[in-house]
Amino acid sequence: MLVLVLNSGSSSLKYQLMNPETAEVKATGLCERIGIDGRLVHEANEHKIKKDINMPTHKEAIEIVLDFLTNGEDKVIDSIDEIQAIGHRVVHGGEFFNQSVIVDDEVIAKLESLIPLAPLHNPANIMGMKIAQEIMPTKPNVAVFDTAFHQTMPASNYMYAVPYEDYKEHGVRKYGFHGTSHYYVSNEAKKMLNKEDSKVIVCHLGNGSSVCAVRDGKSIDTSMGLTPLEGLVMGTRSGDIDAGVLSYLMDKKGMTAEETVNYLNKKSGLLGVSGISSDLREIIEACENGDERAATTIDMKCNRIKKYICSYAGMLEGVDAICFTAGIGENADLIREKVCNGLEFMGVELDEDKNKVRNDENREINTNSSKTKIYVIPTNEEYVIANDTYKLVKA
Ligand code: ADP
């Protein structure tokens, strides 16, 4: 069985053709600048192709991907008929969805009703589904939500302390994101711990970053909120901030509410504080060359992660494993070191040599005497999407 995994953004389309039974990836790629000009990066048979191709809409982008999969010297299948189903990454499932579902008109209507909560993401996700239905009308489509894993959070953790009517009438609450990654990583950690009643903290540190407290396989709290703006210091997002800063900035800089939220989403975080880049590698390099602002930026990033780990350890009443994943979590030993150092009081002891090892495997980087395990677990959201699609379509 082959599943085509699609992650549709407003001007991009990430894809992967995968066998969910074996986790074998047949092809992977990215269409960028859709609606502007169009660029494709396609990888199959250990061969990477980069090509400028006109992509006026996502429809042409998907057609080009299908063409690359089925034709030419790097084709991986003979015909589209070999693709059994399509799995879509969907950012916001609101309170409607606590697990993946087969896409039908009712699902699409619910996702459309959630657009006010995810105006940047859900319209593109819905468009991806509609185009897939149009181009491949006989194939089932499955929606896999970033929010679904966090639907197990108790009300005491997902509520904001605003009047209750705002929750009831407008859905103002914490939803959380990166759920597919937090599910995958915490589940791998559970297997590594070989323990049913596990207390796990997952740090998903990419451009977007979030922390999740997972008890016995269920999310009980996470750092992102109503939108992905809350929580950690991210590439361009501020994370936690006094809400009073909003009106103060609006006043001082003459910005509208929308412009201010955009400012906190796009111009803040690592980029805003360092003035260098949203890419942590460039900030680390500047820090090594003596840039003090870069050093402060790195400390801010690490302190915020540490603050969440400690608060979640308190809420879980202990912690069996702290897991690091995504671009920064998997690759930046400096960040892992700065986050873990000083947490010896709660049984966290990092092994410096193991921390420096870099590979694609799940690995343990704590000392032998550490009471708390520290894991690096490469995330695999596409596998979860393909696997959920497979299970739903097979049922
Ligand atoms: P996205 O959220 O866009 O999927 P990724 O998970 O790919 O992002 O993470 C991107 C981040 O990972 C960037 O800030 C990048 O600098 C960081 N990163 C990748 N490799 C390294 C590394 N070797 N050292 C430090 N940071 C790294």
Structural write-up:
This protein has 2 domains: 2-145, ATPase, nucleotide binding domain (Nucleotidyltransferase, domain 5, 2-Layer Sandwich); 195-376, ATPase, nucleotide binding domain (Nucleotidyltransferase, domain 5), CATH 3.30.420. 39% of the residues lie in helices and 20% in strands. The protein has helices spanning 58-70, 105-113, 122-135, 155-158, 164-170, 179-193, 244-253, 257-266, 269-274, 280-288, 292-316, 326-331, 333-340, 352-356, 381-394; strands spanning 2-8, 13-19, 24-32, 39-44, 47-52, 83-90, 101-102, 141-145, 199-205, 209-215, 218-222, 321-325, 363-364, 373-376. The strands form 2 sheets. It has an 8-stranded mixed beta sheet, with helices on both faces. The chain has a 6-stranded mixed beta sheet with strand order 11-10-9-12-14-13, with helices on both faces. Strand 10 (209-215) and strand 11 form a beta hairpin. The chain binds adenosine-5'-diphosphate. Adenosine-5'-diphosphate (ADP) binds at residues 206-208, 235, 279-281, 284, 326-328, 331-332.
